[in-house]
Amino acid sequence: MAFSEAGFARTFAALRPIPAEAAGESLPAPGTPGVYVVGGGDSWLRRRTAGHIATYHLGEEPAPFRRRRLDGRTATGDQLTSTARTVAFHGGPVVLAESALRLAQPPATARGLAGVFLELVRDPPGRAVIVVEWEQNPDRRRKDWKALAAALAAAVESGKAFVFDCDAPAETQLPGWIRRTARERGVRLPEGGAERLAERFGRELRQQVNEIEKLAAYAGDGDRGAITVEDMDRVLGGGSARDRFRFTNALQAGRTEAALEALDLLLRDGESPQALLALFHRLVVQIQLAQELQAKGEPLASALRVPSRVAADLGRAARRFDRAGLRLLLRRIAEMDLRLKTTRVPHRAALSSLALLLGGAAGAPPSSS
């Protein structure tokens, strides 16, 4: 079962998930035994959080035999029992079970595995730290989930278990996450640079970090890591960050001719049609959100966490469409995504048709026949 669109934190609210970014502030004293469940939609953030928890409990100079790694896709109940209950003079084991959805809901061929994990949650071994990665959401409709959910909730309440939310930040929060990550790596992005990265690579955190590290290597020690827009155009993967910015700016302003010119440049530079389709989707969702905020009389810049200039542009775009028109646009984008994946429709023609719809002066685009 894929991760829920509602988000990990909301879906599993009863387990009081802690945001992954707050993991460093939420852990008990090093070596404190317990069960740590790491779940959420971003694989990079899950592995990073699980690794941080394990390293934290192992300490600066861990005895090598204390670290136990399990592949959750193949682990057996006996393996989980033996690794979790081993006793050592230098401290209990730190068990890192990756891709371990089977510990929550195993197939029929490994029924004993869930029973072992349930017992470990109910009665954690005296000195063991057990870190479990859920690479997908457990299916809460299954009958074996109810007992585990109750045991986890009780263990969280008593401080014997911790659940971490590793969903990528929401689109409105992504630029802030990018700025913090860049600062941690000594990179000073230009004004609007975080927004450019958000538009270019979306909520793929692994890709975001890779691109930020490329910028850090490019900047070196010069001028304290300052990066310009021109630097971003030279260094970032795929098409030009500046052309992507011009493309989305023109789309939301209804300047269709300029948007088509930028689209041609992006496709010429090898930009992925799927990535450009994601830009369409993100922009329409932002315009929808701007409409809702305007209806409530809320200031867009603070609510969307964007610069005032960007908020003003989104506000003008929100007034160009009615709600039905935006819903239809989202449906057209989904349909085009399917066509791009299953037919030989020319990329330029497909994306241009969406640009023409989004550049419409007002109202809903005409319905398809």
Separate helix tally:
17
The N- and C-terminal alpha carbons lie at a distance of: 35 Å
The secondary-structure class comes to alpha/beta
The strand order across the widest sheet is 1-6-2-5-4-3
Q: Strand-and-helix sequence, N→C?
A: HEHEHEHEHEHEHHHHHHHHHHH
Please estimate the helix content.
Answer: 40-55%
Question: How many strand units?
Answer: 6
Strand content: 5-15%
Radius of gyration: 24 Å
Mean pLDDT: 84
Low-confidence stretches: 361-369
Shape: elongated
The major β-sheet equals: 6 strands, parallel
Written description of the protein model:
36% of the residues are buried. The chain has 369 residues and is α/β, with parallel strands linked by helices. Strand 4, helix 5 and strand 5 (129-134) form a beta-alpha-beta unit. The chain has helices at 8-11, 23-26, 43-58, 77-84, 111-122, 143-157, 174-184, 193-201, 205-219, 229-235, 241-253, 256-268, 273-296, 300-304, 308-320, 323-342, 347-358; strands at residues 18-19, 34-39, 67-71, 94-98, 129-134, 161-165. It has a six-stranded parallel sheet with strand order 1-6-2-5-4-3, with helices on both faces. The longest helix is centred in the last third of the chain and has 24 residues, at 273-296.
Describe the secondary-structure layout.
Layout: H1 8-11, E1 18-19, H2 23-26, E2 34-39, H3 43-58, E3 67-71, H4 77-84, E4 94-98, H5 111-122, E5 129-134, H6 143-157, E6 161-165, H7 174-184, H8 193-201, H9 205-219, H10 229-235, H11 241-253, H12 256-268, H13 273-296, H14 300-304, H15 308-320, H16 323-342, H17 347-358
Helix pairs in contact: 4-5, 5-6, 7-8, 8-11, 11-12, 12-17, 13-15, 13-16, 13-17, 16-17
